[in-house]
Each structure stands twice: as structure tokens, then as C-alpha cells.
Structure to design on (497 residues):
């Protein structure tokens, strides 16, 4: 049995709590790995290492920080395949998809390489005679990141490269379901020359998270995960006086207007609904078919869905891998069953799938549900699996009202050839990320990522300019270098002339 430990103070540290969590290979169902679950005392050791490292790291020059980040970028690039293989082994997604995840994470390292541009500050000269005012941004100190299972490399990379580029030190608590990628990211950062203690990884569960949330030396918390936990993280972190951004779950709608190219729309619906087995916070889980295109569109999606090749992520022929755990697979299947009872038409039922040679794997086929009532659990909940709901709407107005009445507002997309309708949609829709003929509009690294409503708790989106703002705080310095003749007593409030 392989054990995954912690990475603290620039070195691997064995778990000392005696508690371990199982890490499965979702394709085989075997548990050949376990992960150490940190005690509060072990979290304290990691925070202390980060606090100690912060004393020097905050003063390390921008050019040295970026030199390390450039080396890190090169090392990640050289190890893409290896990191992707770690992701596939523990998460289950197919290798090409895991490579895509690493590539999107790399984008944020590239953003961090350009941090000197983002930290330039502002200067106004002669605001009063001989007086200059500068606005600068400074690091916060020790910041923590808590990340979900579905992007074990990309989501940590959304956080720590920006945080450390800004001069903070970092304690990462990755998902206990697939922790190996995070440890490898930390090892490579050390190889790139990142000083010990600047990036630490503590593995663990709620015990570790709760300690990070209450620890007096943690200044800020970035969280990505499900909505109930995001809400909890935000309130606990605020209670303990911390800055917090907590990204939650989603139910992303793709609106298809009657003038859309239905083949293109069907291709995109398939890719966005079933890629990574639907375990993406930006997955399309609802298609809203407007007007009389519903039957055609559903047929086109169904034809494509039944042709998908499902198998282990290590097989280059597989287009979709297994789900993360057996329990999750069974829960996803239960939504397909309940949808039928609650009035949906099950056009494609993937729940009975078995994959030859992998009888114990956590596989499920893809499912397509049509005419799903908005009261059905399959519509109301985030399923986080390869289940696509289709809802019919008579008009654009009915469709937008449906989308805007969702409690989530992460991503959304419109498929149309009508520029006016697309423009209206982007202004009217209540979601943080909008795609126009783009089904998964994950912003590039230099724009920020974040949803609205129950998809994000906090004011800052993640990475891009918002990331830099989140990991720094402002300071305004007013300066005068007086001549002896400038003296004199004046108790009046200073005026700018
Ligand atoms: P999760 O909320 O179960 O876990 C996320 C993290 O929180 C993990 O590190 C976990 O150890 C920790 N955690 C879990 N339960 C906790 C508790 N009771 N107290 C304290 N900490 C706890 O999420 P997940 O299942 O790993 O990931 C899937 C979810 O993440 C989906 O809802 C998905 O939409 C969401 N997600 C959102 C985004 C986004 O950007 N909005 C991105 C990726 C994933």
C-alpha cells in the first residue's frame, strides 16, 4: 500500500496522526493507496513553516520571484505527462483531458510570471505642493487553499502561483480523494528553487480544514468545492477574521435558439456535458431548447451520446472515464431513476453500463433526460455526473427566466447565429461566465474565474486581476520631503492645495 504524506517546509513529512483516508483507482475500483489525514497539530506545523518563510519571502525581489516561477513553468511543462498520469490514476479522467487540465493550470503560472506588471501600483505627483501619493499593494501573509477532487492540479494552480508571486506563503489542503498531483506540484516548485516553507501541502479532511479556518496566523482562505461547504467555509473564515473567496457548485444551462446550427450545438452539448464524466463545475448539465427544435436537437444529442467510448482513462481509445467513487456513481444513477419517476423522458439510460475487463471500476454510461420538469431532483440538484437534462422553452424570454431562477450562476452559454440575441443574453443572464457559441467559457488566465449566486461566496473571483487583488491589500503612502522653511503649526484638516 502506497502512502501519500504531507509536504511541509520544503520536504516530505510523514503523517503522524495515525489517520488515513482511502485513495482509489476509479477504473479498477482497487484501493492501493492511502493518504495521511493531518491532525490540528500537523496543520499548525505547516502554518508555522509558512509563517517563518514569509519573513524572507515577502522581501525577495520581484525578479527573483519571477525567475523561480519561470523555472517552475518550464518544469511543469516538462512533466505534463507525468502529472496527467497521476490525475488519471486517482481521478479517473482520460489522459488527454488530464493533459488539458495541466495546460489550463500552466496558464496561471504564466500569469504569475508576469506579476511585476500586476504589482506596479499607482503614483500621483504634486497632489499638493511638494506632496506625492502612491498606492501600493502588499502581500497578506500566510494564505490557505482548500481544493476539490475534480481538478486536482488545475485548481491548486489557480491559487498558489498568484499568491506566492504576490509575496505570500501558502498552505494547500488538496482533496483527500486524489492528493498525489498536489504533492508533485509542490516537489517541482522546490526543484524550481522555491524556498522551503513558501508552499506547503497538508493532506487531510474536515479536521485539517477547520484548523486552517480558525488558525490565527492564516490571513486568507481560497476555497473551491461544493456549495454547502463553500457557504460553511465563508462563514467560518469570516468568523475568524479572514479574507475569503469560496467558489461553489453549479448547474450550467446551455440555451439553444431555433436559428442555431443544431449539429454544432449537439456536438458542443456532448463535449460539455459528458467530458470528464460530467465532473466539471463548468459542465453543461441543462440544455434549454427554444421553440420547435427540441425533438431534432435531442435526437442529434442521443445519436452522439450512444456512440461515446467509455473505459479506463489510460486507454487512448476512451473518451470518458469512470466517476470518482462507487458511492458517487450510485448517487448519479439514482438521479436518472428518480427523474423517470418524476416525469422526465429517459432517452438514453447509462446506468447499467459495465466495462469489459473492469468489473469493479466506478463506471457509468452517459444519460440523456428530456422534458425534465423543473421540480425533478435531476434538474434541481447538481448531479456532477454524465447526465444531461433537456428542458423545453417556447420563447427566449421563457428560457432566460428559467436560467435566472436557478440558485446557481456559474457558467452559461447561448448557441445562436443571431448577434442581437447573443448580445441581449450576455447582458441579461445572471451568471459569472458567459459563452457565446462556447459551451464551457472558462476564462483564460489573465481574466478572472468566478460565478454568481450560490456558485461563489465572497467578492473576488479567482486568478487574473481579481486573484492579485485577493492576495494583496492596498496601502496609500502620502509623502513630502520638507524644506526647513515649510515648518509651522496648523491644526486645521489638511487641504490639498
Ligand atoms: P467538496 O466540497 O466535497 O470538497 C472540497 C474540499 O472541501 C475538499 O478539500 C474537502 O476535503 C473539503 N471538505 C469536504 N467536506 C468538508 C467539511 N464538511 N468541512 C470542511 N471541509 C470539507 O467538493 P468535491 O466533491 O471535492 O468537488 C466537487 C464540487 O466542487 C462540485 O460541487 C463542483 O461544482 C465544485 N467545483 C466548483 C468549482 C468552481 O470553480 N466553482 C470548480 C471545481 C469544482
Amino acid at each position: 500500500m502506497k502512502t501519500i504524506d504531507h509536504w511541509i517546509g520544503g520536504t516530505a513529512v510523514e503523517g503522524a496522526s495515525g489517520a488515513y483516508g482511502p485513495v482509489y483507482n476509479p477504473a479498477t475500483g482497487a484501493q492501493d493507496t492511502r493518504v495521511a489525514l493531518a491532525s490540528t497539530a500537523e496543520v499548525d506545523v505547516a502554518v508555522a513553516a509558512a509563517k517563518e518563510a514569509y519573513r524572507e519571502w515577502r522581501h525577495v525581489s520581484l525578479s527573483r520571484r519571477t525567475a523561480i516561477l519561470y523555472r517552475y513553468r518550464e518544469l511543469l511543462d516538462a512533466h505534463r505527462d507525468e502529472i496527467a498520469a497521476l490525475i488519471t490514476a486517482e481521478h479517473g479522467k482520460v489522459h488527454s483531458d488530464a493533459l488539458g487540465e495541466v495546460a489550463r493550470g500552466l496558464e496561471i503560472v504564466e500569469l504569475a510570471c508576469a506579476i511585476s506588471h500586476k504589482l506596479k501600483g499607482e503614483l500621483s505627483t504634486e497632489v499638493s505642493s511638494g506632496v506625492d501619493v502612491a498606492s501600493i499593494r502588499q502581500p497578506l501573509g500566510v494564505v490557505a487553499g482548500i481544493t476539490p477532487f475534480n481538478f486536482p492540479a488545475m485548481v491548486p494552480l489557480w491559487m498558489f502561483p498568484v499568491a506566492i508571486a504576490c509575496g505570500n506563503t501558502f498552505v494547500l489542503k488538496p482533496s483527500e480523494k486524489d492528493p498525489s498531483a498536489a504533492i508533485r506540484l509542490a516537489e517541482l516548485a522546490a526543484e524550481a528553487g522555491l524556498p522551503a516553507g513558501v508552499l506547503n501541502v497538508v493532506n487531510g479532511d474536515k479536521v485539517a480544514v477547520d484548523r486552517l479556518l480558525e488558525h490565527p496566523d492564516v490571513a486568507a482562505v481560497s476555497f473551491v468545492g461544493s456549495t454547502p461547504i463553500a457557504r460553511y467555509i465563508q462563514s467560518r473564515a469570516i468568523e475568524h477574521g479572514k479574507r475569503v473567496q469560496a467558489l461553489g457548485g453549479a448547474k450550467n444551462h446551455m440555451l439553444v435558439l431555433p436559428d442555431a446550427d443544431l449539429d454544432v450545438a449537439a456536438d458542443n452539448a456532448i463535449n460539455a456535458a459528458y467530458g470528464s464524466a460530467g465532473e466539471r463545475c463548468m459542465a453543461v448539465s441543462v440544455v434549454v431548447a427554444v421553440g420547435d427544435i427540441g425533438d431534432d436537437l435531442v435526437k442529434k444529442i442521443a445519436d452522439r451520446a450512444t456512440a461515446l467510448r467509455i473505459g479506463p482513462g489510460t486507454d487512448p481509445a476512451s473518451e470518458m472515464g469512470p466517476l470518482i467513487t462507487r458511492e458517487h456513481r450510485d448517487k448519479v444513477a439514482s438521479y436518472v431513476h428518480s427523474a423517470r419517476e418524476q416525469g422526465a423522458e429517459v432517452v438514453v439510460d447509462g446506468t447499467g453500463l459495465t466495462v469489459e475487463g473492469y468489473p469493479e471500476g466506478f463506471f457509468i454510461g452517459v444519460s440523456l433526460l428530456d422534458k425534465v420538469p423543473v421540480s425533478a431532483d435531476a434538474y434541481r440538484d447538481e448531479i456532477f455526473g454524465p447526465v444531461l437534462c433537456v428542458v423545453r422553452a417556447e420563447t427566449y424570454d421563457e428560457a432566460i427566466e428559467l436560467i435566472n431562477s436557478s440558485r446557481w450562476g456559474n457558467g452559461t452559454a447561448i448557441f445562436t447565429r443571431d448577434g442581437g440575441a447573443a448580445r441581449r443574453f450576455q447582458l441579461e443572464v445572471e451568471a459569472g461566465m458567459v459563452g457565446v457559441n462556447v459551451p464551457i467559457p472558462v476564462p483564460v488566465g489573465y481574466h478572472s474565474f468566478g460565478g454568481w449566486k450560490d456558485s461563489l461566496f465572497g467578492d473576488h473571483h479567482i486568478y487574473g486581476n481579481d486573484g492579485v487583488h485577493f492576495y494583496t491589500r492596498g496601502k496609500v503612502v502620502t509623502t513630502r520631503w520638507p524644506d526647513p522653511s515649510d515648518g509651522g503649526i496648523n491644526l486645521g484638516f489638511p487641504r490639498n492645495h
